[in-house]
Structures are given as structure tokens and as C-alpha cells.
Amino acid sequence: MVGEAEIDRLPIDLLAHIFVLITSFTDLAQASSVCRKWKQGVKQSMGRRESLSFAGWKMDDDSTARLVRYAYCLKELDISRSRWGCQISDSGLYRISLAKCISSLTSISLWGITGITDKGVGQLISRANSLQHLNIGGTFITDESLYAIADSCPHLKTIVLWSCRHVTENGLLVLVNSCRKLESINLWGTRVPVDCFIALLTISPALKIKPVGLLLNVDASMLPVV
What we know:
- The protein has helices spanning about 5-10, 10-20, 25-30, 35-45, 60-70, 90-95, 120-125, 145-150, 170-180, 195-205, 210-215; strands at about 50-55, 75-80, 105-110, 135, 160, 185, 210.
- The chain contains eleven helices and seven strands.
- The protein folds into two domains: about 10-50, Monooxygenase (Up-down Bundle); about 50-220, Ribonuclease Inhibitor (Leucine-rich repeat, LRR (right-handed beta-alpha superhelix)).
């Protein structure tokens, strides 16, 4: 077994390679607090990753934000709620939003994070200008978050709003009007009226809307002639 003195003599690059093999992000967070050298090793290992998923891990604001800050090359971030429960709050989203990688993210999943509000989502989204895919289903967001997305995410292609029961037709219309590259939107479990689906397709006839295909059988042929 390698003793503490021996592992301290390992080069940073080799230490970083060892940390890349660790799949538990809570263990990585703890390792980064052992000493300065270990913190640097964790930082280098995280900097090599383009995708991070905390799904399945019980993470809190501090440990999540610390690891995301190290991930300079990150493109995809998944902090969906796990079966163990997720402790991420608006405070955590604010800290994550300060990470250098946020402006380069193309995919974010906040699925099922019930402890966040429009305030935290707005802060995070305001810096995610390269975002193409967003899953925010199962949260309590309102139209305020949709307005923030519309203002900050011109490259958005897909969005999941599954069971977001506080979003309304007004927010959806602003979103689709502003995000002209939007290809797909999941509205399962929302409370928007049927007329809203028609209005969205009027703005963007090629838009794929769930559950339109299964429940409403709405397509471009039903749109008003202009």
C-alpha cells in the first residue's frame, strides 16, 4: 500500500490521472480539501472533462460549485435530482454561474431540482449564452425563467418543460418568438391551453411540440393561412 509520504511525491499530472478514475464527485470534493497538491490534482483532472453528471450523487451547493469551477473545458452539465435527493439551491446556481465554463456550455439539465426558483435559474442562464439544450422539467419555475432564457439563449435548440405547471402561454410565446433556432419543446404535464400549441406552431411551423403529436394531432396544415 502506498504510504502518505510516497503519494505526496507523485507528479501533479500523475495525481490528476488518478483522480480522473474516481467516479464519486463527493470523493473528489473531499480529496480537493486534503492539501494544496491534491486540490491542484483534482483541479487538473476536472479541467480535462467536457461532460459532468452529478445524477445519482447527493451533492450540495459547495461541492457542486467547487467542481464545476475546476471544469474549464466543460460543455455538458447535468445536476438533475438523484434518487438520494439533491440539495442544490439558488445559492448553488449563483456560485455555479460564476464558473468560467458557463459561457461555453451547450447543454444543462436541472431536471427535478425542486429547491431552485426563477432567481437562481435566471442568474445561471444569464451567462449561458452558448446553450443549445436545456432540461428544466419537474421544477417550479414560472414565466420569469422563460423570459431569462429568451433573453440569453439565442442558440437554444431543445427545451424540456415537463410538468412545469407554473409556466403560461405568455412565457412560451416570448420564448419561441425569441429563440428562433428552437427545434423541440416538451410541454408534457403543463397547464397551457390547446390554443397555445396552435399559436406556437404559427410562429414556428417546424417546431416539434410534445404532446402535440400524440394528443392533439396538430401539424402545419392546421395553421391559419396568412
